[in-house]
Design a protein that fits this description.
It comes from Acidiphilium acidophilum (Thiobacillus acidophilus). By secondary structure, the chain is of the alpha+beta class. The chain has nine helices and four strands; from the N terminus they run H-H-E-H-H-E-H-H-H-E-H-E-H. Helix 1 packs across helix 7 and helix 2 crosses helix 7. It is globular.
Amino acid sequence: MSLDDAALDTLFRAARTKNAWTDEPVSDEVLQQLYDIVKFGPTSANSSPARFVFLRTPEAREKLKPALNPGNIEKTMTAPVTVIVAFDPLFYEKLPKLFPHADARGWFSGNPDLADETAFRNGTLQGAYLIMAARALGLDCGPMSGFDRAKVDQLFLSDQGWKSNFLVNLGHGVAEDAFERSPRLDFDEACVLA
């Protein structure tokens, strides 16, 4: 079954990164629903290394503020939710639950380079699933990478041992876009049929 044009527009063609937000809140129930969709996106060996910290309060965003690049401060302070998309470097400790039909934990526990690469790659995939699922639920997204990762890790993730990857502001964006959509590469510039 293919998605119709309206769904494809919502997810990709008409969707825009948002930098300004309405005051409409995003409920904890919607965030739960969001994760309950994201968790079904594929990852290698069902590793699911992504971890998400949902900053919902003004106090949490103020705590984040010193780690943001100047150009990301205003849009983050006014977003209803900012998600720290992170990954667990020790994701493989969950593999006996997530991949019970093989000893997948052993593939990674003695190979830190493979574990790091797998955690980062698959955690990034899950962050992309988060953006698509949020759009499917009627939320707008403002993904960004302009922040001090070490500071975010220290402020929000050190207790869990997680590492930050990127941030995503969530909410209901204002209708006006600051500028026209930037160009994209054509098929023959980005693809090879072999």
